[in-house]
Amino acid sequence: MRHTVRFHGSLADRFGGEFVLAVESVSEAVRALCMQIRGLREQIRAGFFGVVVNGKSIGEAELPLSFPEGKKSIIEIIPIPSGSGGNSAGIAKTAIGVLMVIAGIVLAVGSYGTLSPLGVPLIVNGVVMIGAGVASFFMPTADTDLGKFEKQDKRPSFLFNGATNTSTQGAALPLVYGRCRVGSVVISAGIETSAVV
């Protein structure tokens, strides 16, 4: 069966938008395109991409699964923005903090105390920026698998009832206008236990 593969964003700009292939799975389709299109493998390895099959987002575990028999599928490969930048953001924060401290010292000491009301807050904020930059090196990045958020939360919960609630770290927090009857995104939850005498 022939299936359609559509690239979006930077992939579509560089390699073209749509391809029709006789393949059995998403991973086979990507492998076939990487063999035919020069530079595609490197482009995919360098970025983060979401995969949508027939309008349903799928996770990494579902990539090698075969398509349904007798049904043409549309595979869409969509670039995902990389976010805050990981450790490069920490390096930038640390460098900006060091520059702020140096500028504050030059202002406070270089003006013989005349500009110390400007220099001291600059030094304090620079130290805070250095601390934030160093702390970002030790913080793990939350795993945000695209397919994980599309599925309903299958864990039984007796704390909340009604529509399905999302309690996974990293899920988007929706902003709803008007009256809606939908599941919620749990921001904070706690359980308090006490002994019954």
Structure description:
The chain has five helices and five strands; from the N terminus they run E-H-E-H-H-E-E-E-H-H. It is α+β, with helices and mostly antiparallel strands and 197 residues long. Among the domains are: 78 residues, Ubiquitin-like (UB roll) (Roll), CATH 3.10.20.30; 52 residues. Helix 4 runs antiparallel to helix 5. The relative contact order is 0.11.
Sheet with most strands: 5 strands, mixed
N to C succession of SSEs: EHEHHEEEHH
What is the overall shape? Answer: flat
End-to-end Cα distance, whole Å, is 68 Å
Oligomer: single chain
Low-confidence parts lasting 5 or more residues at pLDDT below 50? none
Number of DSSP helical runs: 5
Roughly what is the average pLDDT, rounded to an integer?
Answer: 76
Measured by DSSP, the beta-strand proportion falls in: 5-15%
CATH class of one domain: Alpha Beta
Q: Which short descriptors sum up this protein?
A:
197 residues; Ubiquitin-like (UB roll)
Could you provide a short overview of the structure?
With 197 residues, this protein is α+β, with helices and mostly antiparallel strands.
Sequence-ordered SSE layout with sheet pairings:
Blueprint: E1 2-7, H1 9-15, E2 18-22, H2 26-36, H3 40-46, E3 49-53, E4 56-58, E5 74-79, H4 87-110, H5 116-138
